[in-house]
Write a structure and sequence with these properties.
heterodimer, A: 431 residues, alpha/beta, Urease, subunit C, domain 1, TIM Barrel, 2 domains, nine-stranded mixed β-sheet, 30% helix, B: 312 residues, Rossmann fold, five-stranded parallel β-sheet, binds zinc ion, metal-binding (chain A), zinc ion binding (chain A), Dihydroorotase (chain A), allantoinase activity (chain A), hydrolase (chain A)
């Protein structure tokens, strides 16, 4: 007995496929792509994808699952349910948990919990420094050996250039990518939003765009000298884009990712002091968004990620200054990206799908991101016509911190399949 | 005309008519303050709570007296910001005050936007008595009242705001109110204490005090928080006083009938010279009186009074 996905537009950028076709899944693997109308029997399970898009399972290389230690915000169980509802079949978990994932034990814990409670695949990212406190290297080689897929002190940028250099050298040795949250901590200190017109109007401490670009420049120079692979997390400023573009021309191994909120909102959204708009890096200006779009258009930036950062409602129900940074992003990522990039004509459909599938997989050396015959059957079906108002009613993440509630968005994932198993069907999470 | 809003959170977005309504209503209120018996029954049975997360004797007392002069029951709550770092407490505190039947909550808070958060969660009307570096609308209104009283108008005047604009809620409320009323607004201070994009707001920014004072009708001197120097935002207090302190010599740049304002308390000899602070062209004490009148007007309007001035 097989699972068939019938009649959808199959977009598999990894194999250059963009055509109406059926997909046959058997024993958790992609068995074949073609026309199977006659071969389907009554015993088979069939998903009708007519009028829909069928893509490799979406991969998010930047999310926060909060387990261990911060389970009130999210768990691997709830975070992966949110992922499934957002069409993601695999997520990479940032290490800023409690304790920080900075050892083999931490990496193994995440694999074990994901095995026991996760609905989609979870890949742990290890910390660069012990406790992510920026002073001493964590046991990166050990972590790499037991399955850490990359290294990052996300949330707490490595302030010392000497330590960052050592981290990049070490990552180069074990052939892993360093994912850098680029922000000069002193320059950004006490800042809660983008520095500009709106920080002036609202009287909130600003985070200058230069705080990000300075660290992008530093990390590029360090990665260049170490021959290391560098990935810039949540790129948010025009200057950062420029620096990445120039570095790529020089042949530096640097990539960057863009998050949905940095495309969908400017700092003007902070008016009214809604803490759901407090995010790090902050929501930037129109000019910055324009630069991000053109970088996605010309291929300078090739990866789309969520920076899913759930917090409890209580933590966000306070004065803007005191609220934690972060937006719960997994469940609205696709339709927001769709509106900002596909409907806006910034990216072609295949390059858009690639940015959420094969590009992140290749960058971190993850399995998946392709519909190749024999690959694990991780598949997402999207209905580009499905319209839905964002509500918290069926929200799976514990983090209700989204500024998009009430927005009517078009194009949503309707089915998520992980290893041949349907984990989300008709927008309902299963299991 | 009656007051249309539930709360008074800032001057940004208020119309010219609304600002005029408050200023016009404040005039008869000021008469009450001048009487022997400063008491009218206008707000009898109404309760006003001053919820202050930051110490401020001046503003708190001003609101308290404004309420008492109109027979409202006023209560002060001094909450320290350090013990109430989390916002649930602000929302919870607001809900508690609401449940006690409070009509108006006057809030002072170190965090920009705190009054907005409170206003969203309570039925009581909320008056912003200063939030972070955001707004201090009643200060802006009393400054405008004082200017109008002395100059007879606001439209067409050139007002220079001098000092730490970056951290000043007084500056922001002045900017919005004065711009709405048709005044030209300039700001002047060290570049490290000027926020970005002032031009977008329609304000001219200067780092040279002489240029900023050239032909000004009004100079509003902000209070300098001396601890900014410890944070390295300017090199020394001595240099600040020399570069940006307002003295008689510099005032010669202004119009001959210049008016000097200061929200107080003053650092004499730093941001303002002694002989300027005490001169006839300074209205610093007048501002304090007008502050009570403006706050009476606001309490009155928010409790349903109309701008006819019938407060007897
Ligand atoms: Zn980050």
């Amino acid at each position: 007995m097989a699972l068939y996905i019938k009649g959808g537009r199959v977009i598999d950028p990894a194999n250059g496929i963009n055509k109406i076709a059926d997909i046959k899944i058997e024993e958790g693997l992609i068995a074949a792509i073609g026309d199977f109308a006659g071969a389907i029997t009554e015993a088979d399970e069939v998903i009708d994808a007519t009028g829909k898009l069928v893509t490799p399972g979406l991969i998010d290389i930047h999310c926060h699952l909060r387990e261990p230690g911060l389970e009130a915000k999210e768990t691997i169980a709830t975070g992966t349910r949110a992922a499934a509802r957002g069409g993601f079949t695999a997520v990479c978990a940032m290490p800023n948990t409690k304790p920080v994932c900075d050892s083999q034990t931490g990496v193994e814990f995440i694999y074990n919990r994901a095995q026991a409670t996760g609905l989609v695949r979870v890949y742990p990212i290890g910390a660069i420094t012990k406790g992510s406190d920026g002073q001493e290297l964590a046991e990166m080689a050990d972590m790499a050996a037991c399955g850490a897929v990359a290294f990052s002190d996300d949330g707490r940028p490595v302030p010392r250039s000497d330590i960052m250099r050592l981290g990049l050298q070490y990552a180069q040795m074990v052939d892993k990518v360093i994912i850098s949250h680029c922000e000069d901590p002193e320059l950004a200190k006490d800042g809660v939003m983008h520095e500009g017109y709106w920080s002036t109007v609202l009287g909130l401490r600003g985070i200058p765009a230069a705080a990000e670009a300075i660290m992008v420049a530093r990390d590029i120079l360090l990665a260049e000298s170490a021959g290391a692979k560098l990935h810039i997390a949540h790129v948010s400023t025009a200057r950062s884009v420029e620096l990445i573009r120039q570095a790529q021309w020089r042949g530096v191994n640097v990539t960057g990712e863009v998050c949905p909120h940095h495309l969908a909102l400017t700092d003007a959204a902070v008016e009214g002091f809604h803490t759901a708009t407090k995010v790090n890096p902050p929501l930037r200006s129109d000019k910055d968004i324009e630069a991000l779009r053109s970088a996605l258009n010309d291929g300078t930036l090739t990866i789309l990620a969520t920076d899913h950062a759930p917090h409890t409602a209580e933590e966000k129900a306070c004065e803007y200054n005191y609220a934690p940074f972060g937006i719960s992003g997994l469940e609205t990522a696709w339709p927001l990206f769709w509106r900002e990039l596909v409907e806006a004509g910034v990216m072609t459909l295949p390059s858009f799908v690639a940015a959420l599938t094969v590009a992140p997989a290749k960058r971190l050396g993850l399995p998946g991101g392709t519909l190749s015959v024999g690959a694990a059957a991780d598949v997402t079906v999207i209905d580009p016509e499905h319209t839905e108002t964002v509500t918290l009613e069926n929200w799976q993440s514990k983090g209700k911190n989204t500024p998009f509630v009430g927005q009517i968005l078009r194009s949503w994932p309707v089915t998520t399949i992980v290893g041949g198993r349907v984990v989300m069907r008709d927008r309902q999470v299963i299991g | 005309m009656a007051w249309q809003h539930k709360d008074l959170l800032g001057l940004r977005g208020l119309s010219k008519q609304e600002i005029e309504l408050i200023l016009d209503t404040a005039a008869p209120m000021k008469d009450i303050i001048g009487r022997d018996i400063k008491k009218v029954p206008t707000l009898r049975g109404k309760s006003v709570i001053c919820l202050f997360y930051e110490a401020s004797t001046r503003t708190r007392t001003s609101f308290e007296l404004a309420g008492k002069f109109m027979s409202a029951d006023t209560v002060n709550i001094a909450a320290s910001s350090s013990s109430v770092v989390k916002g649930e407490s602000l929302i919870d505190t607001g809900k508690t005050l609401d449940a006690m039947g409070t009509d108006i909550i006057v809030i002072r808070h170190a965090a920009s936007g705190a009054p907005h958060l409170l206003a969203k969660h309570v039925k009581a009307r909320v008056i912003n008595a200063g939030d972070g570096a955001h707004e201090h609308p009643t200060q802006g209104l009393l400054d405008m009242y004082t200017i109008r009283e002395r100059k007879g108008r606001l439209e067409g005047l050139t007002v220079t705001i001098l000092g730490d604009v970056l951290h000043s809620r007084v500056a922001r409320s002045n900017i919005w109110g004065l711009r709405t009323m048709g005044a030209d607004v300039r700001v002047c201070g060290p570049s490290t204490l000027l926020p970005p994009e002032l031009a977008t707001i329609g304000v001219q920014a200067f780092t040279c005090i002489e240029e900023a004072l050239d032909g000004a009708d009004v100079v509003n001197v902000l209070r300098l928080q001396l601890e900014r120097q410890k944070k390295g935002l300017f090199p020394t207090i001595r240099e600040y006083a020399r570069q940006f302190g307002l003295n008689q010599e510099r005032l010669k740049r202004c119009k001959p009938d210049v008016l000097v304002l200061h929200p107080g308390p003053m650092n004499r000899g730093v941001e303002i010279a002694d002989d300027v602070a005490d001169a006839d062209f300074a209205a610093i004490e007048e501002q304090v009186t007008n502050g009570v009148a403006v706050r009476m007007a606001i309490l009155y309007l928010m409790m349903g009074g109309s701008g006819s001035g019938a407060v007897h």
